[in-house]
Structures are given as structure tokens and as C-alpha cells.
Amino acid sequence: MPTLQESLEIPVAGVALEADVTVPERASGVVLFAHGSGSSRHSPRNRYVAAELGRAGLATVLADLLTPDEERLDARTAKLRFDIDRLAVRTSALTDWISEQESMAGLATGLFGASTGAAAALVAAAARPNTVGAVVSRGGRPDLAGEWLRLVRQPTLLIVGGLDIQVMQLNQHALEMLRGTTRLVIVPGASHLFEEPGTLGQVAGLASTWFLEHLTGPG
């Protein structure tokens, strides 16, 4: 079967969320992206990482966690991007949707969270222990998951830029609360958005390795 690519609206948690889904032939797992801090499925950074995961044989679901109306509101107020409960409920619902899709049947699901989306991913992992198999955070705010961190048992990789000092400290504290297999990787010379040459490639490589190691499927 050739690579499946489609853009669609996914009805979850009382709203319709726009998503881009890519399923390569003989996929070995699927990764759902949880965007944060005003980002969306159009984020060039997450789309780059998703493309690299696809080359590694992983299916990807790039879904907006906010509706278009909510995105416009958030652009003005910057409040909804910090509504972790809302983002986590939708991330959890999207993992349920993935498990029901014939094109991804039998594939374990990983979550890739960026910025505030990392907190949503971790809360969803705690809420879906039998569905979510692994988590990767890029420049994330896992601290915003609060006490949910202590309920996360899945292998979790935290990736932070070496120049992102405050976020690095928040990730180090979160690392102490996580109970499963965990690893914190500091990318030297990288800022919060990993815009420096080569740094985002390191993120993609680390994420690919982590998901391929910890997700199992029929691939």
C-alpha cells in the first residue's frame, strides 16, 4: 500500500479539529503532535519533524487542538494556549480516534508535544495509559501538567535547547516527578524554537530513535 496522505476534520470532544494525516507503507507506529503556544498543524518546525518521522517509517497526525474561531481568539488574548485541560482532553480524544482508524489499526501511539502542547501530551499520556506508548517533548512546558506528571508511566524524552535556561530548569524539575523511563537531552547552542542550523535535525533524530525504540506495531 502506498503512503496515505489526507487532510480532514476530526469530530472529537464536541468540536471538529482540522488534521493532516500521513501513513507510510508498513508503518511501525503513529505519532500525534500536540501543538502549543499559538502554534498549529502548519508549524514549519513540527512539519519538519513529522516528515523525518515519516522517513523513519512512522505515521503522523498533525492536528490543530483549537478550532479556527478559538485560534483567532487565542491570537488576541494568548489565553487558550495555556488552557491545558482543554488541550489535554482533545489530545486524549484524538488518541481514541487514531485507535479506531483502519489505516492505523494495531499501531501503538506516541505523542510529540511542543511548548504548552507538551503538558497536554503528558496529561493525555496519564489519562490513556493503555493507548499512549511513548512521549517526546520539544522545548516543552511539562511543569504545566502539574500533578499529572506523577501518573505518567510511559517512556518520556524531554528535549531542551541549551540556551533555553528557564525552560531547561522547568524540565529538570519535571524529570524528577515522572515515574517511567525518562531522559532529558540538552541540545547545545539551541534556543527555545531550535532555529539554529542543525538543531531541529537533532530533535527529529532523537524523536525518531525514541519512538522506534518504544512503540511497537505490526510494521
How many discrete domains?
1
Uncertain spans, ≥5 residues at pLDDT below 50? none
The helix fraction, in percent, is: 25-40%
What class, by secondary structure content? alpha/beta
Strand content bin: 15-25%
The number of helical segments is 6
Strand order of the largest sheet: 1-2-4-3-5-6-7-8
* CATH top-level class: Alpha Beta
CATH superfamily: Alpha/Beta hydrolase fold, catalytic domain
Biggest sheet features: 8 strands, mixed
- How far do the termini sit from each other? 12 Å
Cα radius of gyration in angstroms: 16 Å
- In the CATH hierarchy, the architecture is 3-Layer(aba) Sandwich
Shape: globular
The counted number of beta strands is: 8
What labels would you give this structure?
single chain, 219 residues, alpha/beta, Rossmann fold, eight-stranded mixed β-sheet
Q: Can you describe what's shown?
A:
There is one protein chain. The longest helix has 16 residues. The protein is globular. α5 links the parallel β7 and β8. An 8-stranded mixed β-sheet has the order 1-2-4-3-5-6-7-8, sandwiched between helices. The chain has a single domain, classed as Alpha/Beta hydrolase fold, catalytic domain (Rossmann fold). 36% of the residues lie in helices and 24% in strands.
Outline the secondary-structure elements.
Layout: E1 4-12, E2 15-23, E3 30-34, H1 44-55, E4 59-63, H2 68-77, H3 84-99, E5 109-114, H4 116-127, E6 132-138, E7 156-161, H5 165-177, E8 182-187, H6 199-214
Parallel strand pairs: 3-4, 3-5, 5-6, 6-7, 7-8
Antiparallel strand pairs: 1-2, 2-4
Summed up, what is this model?
With 219 residues, the chain is an alpha/beta fold. It has helices at 44-55, 68-77, 84-99, 116-127, 165-177, 199-214, and strands spanning 4-12, 15-23, 30-34, 59-63, 109-114, 132-138, 156-161, 182-187.
